[in-house]
Amino acid sequence: MSAAVRPLALTLGEPAGICLDITIGAWLARREANVPPFLFVGDSAALLRRAAVLAQTICVATASPEDAVGIFSDAIPCLKDVSTVSAAPGKIDPMDTPAVIGSIRQAVGLVRSGEARALVTNPIHKKAMQQAGFAFPGHTEFLGALAEEEFGKQAMPVMMLAGPDLRVVPVTVHIPLVDVPAALTTERIVAVGKIAARELKSRFGLERPRLAVAGLNPHAGEEGMLGTEDERVVRPAVEELRRAGIDTTGPLSADTMFHTAARKTYDAALCMYHDQALIPIKTLSFDEGVNVTLGLPFVRTSPDHGTALSIAGTGEARATSLIAALRMADALSRHEAPA
């Protein structure tokens, strides 16, 4: 199938959270927000139950990937033969975890087979998943394993958070802050930087991507007065990236990297730990931020927020970030440069 007639594959996510709410919201906004057609890889009955809770009128239809685009204007296309779920809004049911995992596997399989052209994942509840035996810290790491399993390619998945005014790439992600210095190596910074630069060029269409590398310590270590990691670990990585022909600056003081004028000097910021990256992007683009996984053999995006159990089924959840994720997946999968 050509890109024009292939849907995006949208996963179930945590059914007790707002995933069903925002899926419904994205479909209801399909015309005014120019939402690209997606195939929901999840329980259609759960969508109908949540729509009733939200007092929204929707239509759903079980569909094959081939039929999804044609159905989308009139109904939410839902993949046939998926597991059912039973969680009520705000109340996680551990019995639903296999369906959550299965949805991700099925959606990746659709992308691998060419029946879907990109993957968009609804948020999962990491603690609930791990308590049920899920062996990965989150989506990103699981997708890296699936890339090897389904595509036969080794992958180093890299998280990018992208909004209208900023792109950030955390070098270390879901680890405690106390463990960051030991996990941070010159080799890892270089590897992440090369993947970011490569995909900014191939997927985002930037001919000469510019990377800004944050220091780990306050004021990027103040020449060793506030920690030695920036001179021992970060600066050598910056120099190696430059030798590789990548336009790279740093290590920079993180407290001056994200104001308006500074953001105009680079295309993506490499940050040393989770909050150093996510605080500025969520401050600037909380409702429009998109999580993009780089380093995979397929396009994957996700809303830049969690499951929000406390507002599931209340009507307060906004579909803005999911819509942005769907639109970005659409754009990246249509315009990706050849490998």
Work out the count of structural domains: 2
Q: Using the alpha-carbon principal axes, give the shape.
A: elongated
How many angstroms does the end-to-end distance come to? Answer: 20 Å
Instruction: Bin the helical content.
Output: 25-40%
CATH superfamily (homologous) name of the largest domain? Isopropylmalate Dehydrogenase
Mean pLDDT: 93
- Poorly predicted regions are none
Structural account:
The mean pLDDT is 93. A hairpin with a 5-residue loop joins strand 11 and strand 12. This protein has twelve helices and twelve strands. The chain has 339 residues and is an alpha/beta fold. The longest helix has 17 residues, at 97-113. It has two domains: 1-157 and 296-339, Isopropylmalate Dehydrogenase, CATH 3.40.718; 158-295, 3-Layer(aba) Sandwich (Isopropylmalate Dehydrogenase), CATH 3.40.718.10. The chain has helices at 19-28, 44-53, 65-71, 97-113, 126-131, 139-151, 180-183, 186-202, 229-243, 260-263, 274-285, 320-335; strands spanning 8-11, 38-41, 60-63, 76-79, 119-120, 158-162, 167-170, 210-214, 247-252, 268-271, 290-294, 300-303. It is elongated and about 60 Å long. A ten-stranded mixed β-sheet has the order 2-1-5-12-11-6-7-10-8-9, sandwiched between helices. The chain has a two-stranded parallel ribbon with strand order 3-4.
Task: Describe this structure in a few short sentences.
The protein folds into two domains: 1-157 and 296-339, Isopropylmalate Dehydrogenase (3-Layer(aba) Sandwich), CATH 3.40.718.10; 158-295, Isopropylmalate Dehydrogenase, CATH 3.40.718.10. It is 39% helix and 15% strand.
